[in-house]
Amino acid sequence: MLSRLIKILIVLAALLVGLWLVSRYMPKKNEAGVDQPILSETAENTGKIWFIASACELFRNEYGVYPSSLALLESKKLIKPEDKLDTFGNDIIIKDVSKTGFSVASSGKDGKPGTDDDVVISCSSKNGKLSINTVQSSKGQLDTGKLLVPVKDGK
Fold first, then answer.
1. Whether the Cβ atoms of residue 108 and residue 117 lie closer than 8 Å to each other
2. Which of 7, 137, 47 is CA-nearest to residue 38?
3. What does pTM read for this prediction?
4. Rounded CA gap, 13 and 92, in Å?
5. Which candidate, 108, 114, 115, 133, places its Cα nearest to that of 123?
6. What is the DSSP letter of 35?
7. Neighbours of 16 (CB within 10 A)
8. CA gap 77, 79 in Å, rounded
9. Where are the domains of the chain?
10. Which of 27, 41, 49 is nearest to 141 (CA)?
11. What is the distance between the alpha carbons of residues 131 and 101, in angstroms, rounded to a whole number?
12. What is the pLDDT along the chain (155 residues), one digit of tens a residue?
């Protein structure tokens, strides 16, 4: 009897947490009655930069080198023309390309490189692991993080 009561309480707690999560992430209406975006512009922009970084890694796996431009990724059908612009309509760039790594950057909402709203993702492959360092200095909206992913040697 007690174990059944505990199971019921666990199910109720899970339902309450689920309802809370749904209510927290449902689109909210602003004063004009228009749905607010679920993701902030900064989060959406970071997602676009991650997408380009992933395409660069796919390019390297296929051709053995990192791409030096977005045009190369587009020519190999890894990205679409609209993927070359960030959320704010500015050019996304690939920079610091070497045999072992690259960076993908967006100049952020203000369109000026080197300011607090820039998003830069730097990737390097050493000792058979892909090291991904994310850097966004957008007033603390995303902390610097590091992810290590095993990759094949020689590619």
1. yes
2. 47
3. 0.64
4. 44
5. 133
6. B
7. 10
8. 5
9. 41-150
10. 41
11. 9
12. 666 666 666 766 776 666 665 555 555 666 666 666 555 777 788 888 888 888 888 898 889 899 999 999 999 999 999 999 998 999 999 988 888 888 898 888 888 888 878 888 888 877 666 676 666 544 434 444 444 444 444 44
Q: What is the spatial distance between Cα 95 and Cα 132, in angstroms, rounded to a whole number?
A: 15
Q: Which amino acid is at 108?
A: G
Query: How many other CB atoms are found less than 10 A from the CB of residue 3?
Result: 7
> pLDDT digits over 129-151, tens only?
667 666 654 443 444 444 444 44
One-letter amino acid for residue 123 of the chain? C
Q: Which amino acid is at 129?
A: K
- Smallest Cα–Cα separation from 85: which of 57, 56, 107, 114? 107
DSSP class of residue 69 equals S
